[in-house]
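User: Hello, can you help with two protein structures?

Assistant: Certainly.
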Amino acid sequence: MTERRKIKEEEINLIVFLLNKVGLTADEYPINEYVDEYEGYVMGSIGLGNPDVSPYAGDLIQAKYIDSDSKEVAITLTMDENGQLLDLDFWKVDFSKLLVYPKPDDLFFAEE
């Protein structure tokens, strides 16, 4: 079950940062004004609201974050088969609630 709402500024900032990290822009992968909250927004995952969404086609980028309770969170920006943004997924290692939404400076990457 999802809940549709207007995208938050902090979510836009994170998506733009992740796109830029892989050499892409929001012009190439437009960010919709409305998103779908997954699982009551417990871990922060959202569907990026494309009306003609197609199946998952891959990850654009993965990042890690350490929440305020010292638990690791995996963050993945995905795309669909139509080449549009699909999801911004958060997976906290213990499946608990995301306590503090990450800022771009809080993220780290496997290659760093």
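That covers the first. Now for the second protein you mentioned:
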Amino acid sequence: MAIKLYVGGLPYSTTDTELKDAFAAAGTVTSASIVTDRETRRSRGFGFVEMDTEEMANAAIEMFHDKEFGGRRLTVNIARPKEDRPQREFRPRQQW
């Protein structure tokens, strides 16, 4: 079962392929994706990497957490499930 890792502090110029290639040094990467802004399509500076096994995920954490990557210090840990947030209430803008 693949283990999903959160990778924060990425340089904004990092691509999915660069992220996947870097983490391949720790083992088999199932997938790698950079999170982008919906409107601008620019990187938000973090992403997710799925490693093939828990051992490979732990090796990646040890290899990359708090280490420099592209001039920035990374945060790498096991990804937590997205928390359920209450639905935002739609309020139309007031017309003046």
